[in-house]
Amino acid sequence: MAYNHSGKKHRLLKWLKILLPHSIIRFYPPQFILRDTLVSSTKRTIQQGNEAAVIVFNIKNLRQISEQIGIRQFEEFQCGLKLIYADVIKESVPLQDILALHDYNSDGITLILRMDSQKQSLLEIDGTTSLILQKVKQRLEQDYSQVRAVFETGYMFVEKKSASLRESINKAHQQAAAMAERKIHSEFNEMLYQMTKIIEGKNIHLLAQPIIDVATKQIKAYEILTRGPQGSLLESPLTLFSVARQTSRLYDLEMVVLEKTFEQVSKNGSSQDIFINFTPITLGNIRFIKDMKWILDKYKNVKAAQIVIEITERDDIDEVEGLIQNIRALRNMGFRIAVDDTGAGYASLHTISEIMPDIIKIDRTVIENIHHSTIKESMLKGLLLIAKEAGSLVVAEGIETEEEAKVLSRNKVDLAQGYFYARPARLEHA
C-alpha cells in the first residue's frame, strides 16, 4: 500500500490556509473548530438573499478499514483523506462560495457553501457533491490503492428564521449527517415523517410568476413555484425538494404540485398557459403517464394544450430510462415541452438536440448584466439561432433591470420573466 502523504498535518494546515482565511478555520487535531466568524459570514450570506448549504461526507466502513490497515496507518489515512478533501474542494468549488470546511467529529468532513438562490438549484448541490466525491475516490485509488472506502453523503440548508444562527448551523449539520446515514439516524426518520405528512396532506402552497410577451408587455403564461408549509423548515423550496429527493419522495411531491396546480387552474378558470417544473427523474418514472391521464380526467376543464411541461435541473437525460418515451406520450396527449437552464452548460444543449422542445428557457447566467457584455449578447444570439433551427419559442429568465430588458427587445426575444416585469404571487390570485 502506498502512503505518499509525509508531514500530512503540516501540509493539511497549509492547504486550509489557501482554501480559507485563517481567521475562519483553525486546525486543532483531531477536529476543526467552528469559529464565530463562520456565523457572521453565514449571516451575511443569508442577508444577501442566498442560501447556506451544509454538506456532510462520511465513510461508512471506517471500522473495517482500521482493522484492515492497522491503527498507525489508519491515522495517516484519516489525515491524508482530509488533505485530499481540501485539495479536491479547492479545485471544484469557487473559493468565494466556501464558508467553512471542518469536521465536527473525526469520522467525516463537513463543507458549508454559499448558494445563490437565484442561479443555483437543488441538483446544483447534488452535482457539486457528486463531483467532489468522484474526485476524492479517484485520489484515494491513487494514494491508498488497497483501501475500499464506502462513502455516504447528505446535505441540508441552514434555516433562515432561527433565533440562533449557531444553533441553526449545528441543526443543519445534524440533519445533513442524518441524510448521509439514512434510516439509521432518528433525525432522518423525523424528516421522512414530516415529508410524508406534507405529501399526504398536500400541505404546500403555490406561487405563479408571470411570463411576459417582450414586444407587447402582456402576460402570456405563468410559471408555477412551490413553497412548503409556511413558517416551517421546509417552506424553502430548496430545503423542501432536497429532503424529498434524499428521502426518496421526490416523485410523490412533484405529483402533489401537479395536482394542486390543476385544481387551482380549474378553480380560477384561467386560460393562460401554465409552466410546471419536473425533474427528469420524475418525468421518466414508469407511473408518470398513467398518473397524468388520471389528473387530466379529474380536472376536465384544464386542457393539455394549456400546460407546458418544463424539464428542469441538469440531470443527464441519457441516464433516465423511459424519459424520451414519456415525452413522446405527453406530446401525443397535447402537452408542450420546455427545456430549462439553456446556456448553463453542455447538458441543456444536448437536451435540446435530443428532445427538440417547443420552448427553450435561457438561463439567468446568460442574461445577468448582458447589457455590459458583448460576449453574453453573442451567446444570446447563438441560442436564438439554435431555437429557430429547433422551431422553439424562447423565454429569457431572471430579468431584473430595464437595461437587460432592452437587450431582449432589440434581439427580438419572444418571452421573458423576472422581477423587472413582475414578482410571483399566490396562484389563486393570478
From TrEMBL:
EAL domain span: 188-430
InterPro entries for the chain: Cyclic-di-GMP_PDE-like, EAL_dom, EAL_sf
Signal sequence extent: none
PROSITE patterns tied to this protein: EAL
Domain of life the protein comes from: Bacteria
Pfam families with a match to the protein in the record: EAL (PF00563)
UniProt-recorded name of the protein: EAL domain-containing protein (Putative c-di-GMP-specific phosphodiesterase class I)
Species in which this protein is naturally found: Peribacillus deserti
